[in-house]
Design brief:
By secondary structure, the chain is of the alpha/beta class. The protein has 9 helices and 12 strands.
């Protein structure tokens, strides 16, 4: 039996569960966790299930981690952290020179340690063994083959699994942190475009982009930062950081009045 922890928005959990049952009709929810997470079990093998799930292009299932080890914790730092490390060693699969990251979520009662304490302890142990830790979200986003050590702590239970970043649906266990930790220079709309480019693996390669309804210019800035020339179409003003970019031209008009005399590469 293969077990996974799936993350979904709490109010949309039933739709996420429906997506999963279309992939494996024998799925059952073994345990309700916290914060929109739930533990499922299926007779399908890990690799078969993950491939089928990715091929189905789920919408409501945001992140998934395999559960290969389950532990009972005491809440004591000196005993729990080595126990978690031993369970990861038992799973195996991370060799010297492998690129890896550690992702931990901790829900429920307070322990003497934080999720970050777990990540640092496990990361340092594998770095000492010769593996290469990756701390940047960008490296995870662009390297689907990177190994991810996933740890989910719920009260006194701990679930551990190892997978490739590309098999987790979302590269980070807390999908909202992937871009929201980055500096926002214009507005949060920047994160929306960054997320879309990452989700659909789109690489911008220069050319002319037209941003319709651009103000205050979050998307325009993302496009310009990628190396594109951008015409920002909007009767409203743009943010001063956007107007200062040399590759941006502001067309102060409504979208229906705009006409481009050049070939448009991206709209």
């Amino acid at each position: 039996m293969a077990k996974f922890i799936v993350t979904a928005s709490p109010e949309l959990k039933k739709f996420a569960y429906g997506e999963l049952t279309k992939v494996a009709d024998d799925i059952r929810e073994e345990k309700k966790l916290k914060d929109g997470c739930f533990l499922i079990e299926t007779a399908m093998g890990f690799d078969v299930f993950l491939k089928a799930l990715k091929d189905s292009r789920p919408i409501f299932s945001k992140h998934i981690m395999p559960v290969q080890e389950e532990l009972i914790l005491t809440g004591n730092t000196e005993s729990d952290l080595p126990l978690i490390l031993a369970s990861i060693d038992k799973i195996g699969g991370i060799a010297a020179s492998d690129a890896f990251s550690v992702q931990c979520r901790r829900m429920g009662v307070n322990h003497h340690y934080t999720a970050k304490d777990i990540e640092v302890f496990i990361g340092a142990a594998f770095e000492k063994k010769g593996a290469v830790p990756q701390f940047s979200d960008y490296t995870i986003e662009t390297n689907e083959g990177q190994k991810v050590i996933s740890i989910y702590v719920f009260n006194n239970l701990c679930f551990v699994g190892i997978s490739c970043a590309g098999d987790n649906l979302n590269e980070h266990c807390d999908e909202y942190r992937v871009f929201s930790r980055r500096p926002c220079e214009v507005n949060r709309a920047e994160y929306k475009l960054l997320e879309a480019l990452r989700k659909f693996r789109i690489t911008l390669k220069g050319g002319l982009a037209i941003d319709l309804g651009a103000a205050p210019g979050g998307w325009t800035k993302v496009l310009a930062d990628s190396g594109m020339r951008v015409v920002a179409v909007d009767p409203a003003l743009l943010h001063e950081k956007v107007t200062a970019i040399g590759s941006v031209r502001h067309a102060m008009m409504r979208a229906e009045n705009f006409v481009s005399e050049e070939k448009i590469d991206l709209l």
